[in-house]
User: What shape does this take?
Amino acid sequence: MNLFKLSWKYLTFRPLSTGLNVLLLALGLAIITVLLLIQDQFEKKMTQDAAGIDLVVGAKGSPLQLILSSVYHVDFPTGNIPMNEAVRLSRSRLVKQTIPMALGDNYQGYRIVGTNHDYLSLYEVGFASGKAWEEPFEVVLGAMVAEKSGLKLGDTFTGSHGISVGSHDHDHHDFRVVGVLEPKGNVVDRLVLTSIESVWYTHDEEGESDTDEMASKEDNDQVVESQDQEHGDHDHDAKFHHPVAKSGFPKTDQDREVTTLLVQYRSPMAAVQLPRMINSNTNMQAASPSFEMSRLFELLGVGIQVLEGLAFVLIAISGLGIFIALYNSLKERRYDLAVLRAIGASKFQLLILIFLEGVSLTFFGALLGILLGHGFLSILAAQNEQGIAAGLEAWTFLSAELWIVIYALTVGVLASAIPAWSAYQTSIANQLTRK
Amino acid sequence: MLFQTKDLKFSHPGQKEYHFQDISLDRGESLLVLGKSGSGKTTLLNLIAGLLSPHSGSVVLDGTAINQLDSGKMDRFRGENIGIVFQKPHLLAPLDVKENLMMARYFSNKNGQDADELLQELDLSYKSHSPVNQLSEGEAQRVSIARALINRPKLILADEPTSSLDDENAERVVKLLQGQATKIQAALIIVTHDHRVKEQISNYIEVKSV
Assistant: This one.
């Protein structure tokens, strides 16, 4: 037997009160853990996903929506822009590189992104198997898409219109998987990448076969639609086997559209001039990922503060609960303490005993809290496969979590200070001889 | 002499001073301390156990003047050398029978008696792992005796150990205390007003309020 064992016996001797206090503390700490993890990983992910993208140019609308839809692929796109305007912009001396993107379709909820090979190099993503798309309707799957859908090289599938599951299928031409990307832990994991041409041709066919349906589409502004459906069938089969553009814009003599343009500045000067130029002189809008994201975090900040407040209230209550539990049990245990003294325990050992109880209570609370927090996050990430919480690493541990343990132990020390002191001062002679 | 008190004086705040008769005991000797309630016999026991310190006088156990030890050393000394049996068993409820004994062992840091052997001698081995709140009164009192004896104390103090027991158990408890005191060569002091005990131990002093 030793003091550790003894304090453990006393704790487990009152399982309900001990359990309640541990649980209360754990809940408070779990909230803090989740907030810590989300803040850390979200910001990391946000910056990681937006790395190398200085500016996003797209159709007029909400700038935040533009960023969310074309950098993080979570919100609806704002609409399309004429390709010739996009091409003109890309030739500006302020621009170092542009990556055009055509959005608007999905496969089982995973977004199909028409773009060029520059997008792959932007995220420096390599291939787990296969290679990049060369021809229309060839696609490359993000690691998570491949894993969840079970599609392999050579498999074919049909894309659906819109960006969420349940829209009608484009059943005229199947996509064929030619490559699977390695997992990168960023947005690319949950995308289906293909050429802009693929996206165009998908919608061309749609237009030719059933133009009636076109009219009934409620969100046709989100689709890359070909403006001219009158070009004949004669070049279809041929163009489906032409190599697609691997960099820059696809070559076409038609009035085509793209959804957005990811822009890299040539010089810091561009940050001042380019957005203003685009927003005032063109029908397009420009939005900066870093600016919009900091605006988003500002908006979310209130909610985070409320949660933090709630967490601290829970922790304070659990601290109070532990104090009351120890104090009450001390009343019942004054005889026990006196007996311990009589069989040789020193005052100091009794002090330690009570502290041990409070501190081990909060220590278990802290462990449970951290576990709950990570567990909650893993549920969150599992529930939100295609959303922004996808790919949150639930089981990475931060050094800040050590602070949670330290917070908890401090609560334990504070809550047991008064009971421990009164245990220290128990007069054994009076206690034992009270008949 | 193993144990000696000399000229002990003590008063509780606001009350008249007690002046206690000197005691001296050798190894294996037993002594009854008799007195009415309020006569100060419990105070005497507390002084001997080092739970209270006297205003004047001395308590010497095996060459150590225990009233001169500081609080921490006194606690340790008590754990190692004085076994106390209380009127009520006061066992630690979260622990089982054997753990109660081992707790006393822990605080004294001394290799005393073998716990299992001791429990067997006290006819308790079959209860070794029972929770203490499942013991009968007599059993619980025997466990508290075992706890007092586990460290081979030089002095065994018993405070009204029989008052809540029936005749049979009372006799058994006193026999046990005497037998064990002889076995481990300890001095035994029993504070009581129980006439049943007088029949078993003849050596006694009487505490009177002066």
Observations:
- Residues 210-233 of chain A have pLDDT under 50 and may be disordered.
- Chain A has two domains: 3-46+301-433, 55-287.
- The longest helix of chain A spans residues 289-342.
